[in-house]
Amino acid sequence: MIKINRTIIIVCSVILFIIAGGCATYYQKTLKFQNYIYDGKLEKAKALLDNDQKAKTGKNKLLYFLNNGWVSWMMNLNEESNKALAEADIIIEDQQKNYALEALSIISNPGIKPYKPEDFENVMVNYFKALNYLNIGQYDEALVECRKINIKLYELNDKYKDHKNRYSDDAFAHIIMGLIYDANKEYNDAFIAYRNAIEVYENIYEKNFNVNIPQQLKWDLLRTAYINGFYNELHEYEKKFNLKYEHKIFKGGEMVFFWQNGLGPVKSEWSINFTKIDGEGGMVIFANDELGLTFPFYIGDKSDEEKSDFAKLSFLRVAFPKYLERKTVFDSAEITVNDTVYPLYLAEDINSIAFKTLHDRMIREMANSLLRLAAKKAMEMAVREENEEAGTAVSIINALTEKADTRNWQTLPYEIYYTRIPLATGKNALNLITYSPDLSDTQTFEFNIEKGKTYFHTFQSLESYPPEPY
């Protein structure tokens, strides 16, 4: 049995110090920053980040650079944004397991470790870098970032057993690649990228994220098929989409407009209770009938003393992060130019991707979480047999330290729409009209268009409802 000594007391004191004040979620701890974002006070949000010296070097430094990159992008500080995002990319690439922290997390919780991004957060770094390059007219550099998105996803998916990852390809990244090829008049590559995007929508997005093929993508695929002389493919897709393409030559230029709507979800915490079922041959099973989850563990090679400790377990509560949705104020939008209306089409639902990918990760990591908790509970019972008061102290520590990691990149958009707009040469005024059930809002943009050139512009509506319950 475990003997009570000063070492245990010191370890318990250290753990209590670590978790002091740790009950609040990451969103609650950064509420001042979030409120600046809600109110559109970007300068104050950036100043708050810049003055947070601890965030630049601590366990949350990745989130610091992600938020800084986003705020700088919103302020049109494209080079500064890319510098911060490049630093974030390096941190992600260089992340190595800190084995001391890994060991401590076994008896505490994952929140003590440096933040590791969700898969979709990882690739959104490259998305915003691509937007920065598009803003400053460096299309080839933007193309490189788009390629990196799917390269990263392929590499991440290879690490998962049986490649069970619903977010294994990004349709919107293929669209942006196609749009850039299109702008460079590389129509064969554009057609291939658009076709790849179609396949991802059909095979992944429609069934997993409830996002259908954007109408704009269908027209762009038909147009590039016609320009390339791929008439068989043109007729095939016309039939498939129930559309008839008529080629038009524009005398001016074009604008590709991205609308980022709202803010993505934030993480909170929920817990799941598991009942221990004794199996045969040294096996124990932790089960949750409500969710239909069972996780068997082999304890046959443990000592009799350790088996006895595990045998005393009856149930476990495991804490895991969950997302809280921040519903969007606006539910649709359109662009008007000289009384002509151009709908904006949904291309990426980041909110849906976030919920589905976190669920997939929860299932993958549940076994490790249960094993961690079982070890903590067994330790508590062993200590309690030697000293009831010390056992009570360990029980309190176990309860306090069973916390989920509620950190996440909280400035990502809820969803992304886009459309293509033909414009006359010279000065043009575009009106973005956003709609909600109760109101509409109009933003006006002016652009000076050159003949034969394609322009890119992105606007994010920050209007969102706070997450509930808070």
Q: For the report, how would you describe the main beta sheet? A: 4 strands, mixed
Sum up the overall morphology in one term.
Answer: globular
Number of strands: 12
Return Rg in Å: 26 Å
Run of helices and strands: HHHHHHHHHHHHHHEEEEHEEEEHHEEEE
Strand order of the largest sheet: 8-9-1-12
* Number of separate domains: 3
Between the first and last Cα atoms, what is the distance in angstroms? 44 Å
Number of helices: 17
Taken as a percent bin, the fraction of beta residues is: 15-25%
Low-confidence stretches at least 5 residues in length (pLDDT < 50)? 1-21
Helix content: 40-55%
Q: What is the average of the pLDDT values?
A: 85
Structural class: alpha+beta
Could you list some keywords that capture this structure?
disordered N terminus; 20% strand; 470 residues; 4-stranded mixed β-sheet; Serine Threonine Protein Phosphatase 5, Tetratricopeptide repeat; alpha+beta; 4-stranded antiparallel β-sheet
What does this structure look like?
The chain is of the alpha+beta class. It folds into three domains: 1-24 and 252-470, no CATH class; 40-168, Serine Threonine Protein Phosphatase 5, Tetratricopeptide repeat; 170-248, Serine Threonine Protein Phosphatase 5, Tetratricopeptide repeat (Alpha Horseshoe). Helix content is 50%, strand content 20%. The strands form three sheets. The chain has a four-stranded mixed sheet with strand order 8-9-1-12. A four-stranded antiparallel sheet has the order 4-3-2-5. Strand 6 (332-337) and strand 7 (340-343) form a beta hairpin. Helix 4 (42-50) packs antiparallel against helix 6, helix 12 (187-208) runs antiparallel to helix 13 (215-228) and helix 13 (215-228) packs antiparallel against helix 14 (231-241). The chain is globular and about 85 Å long.
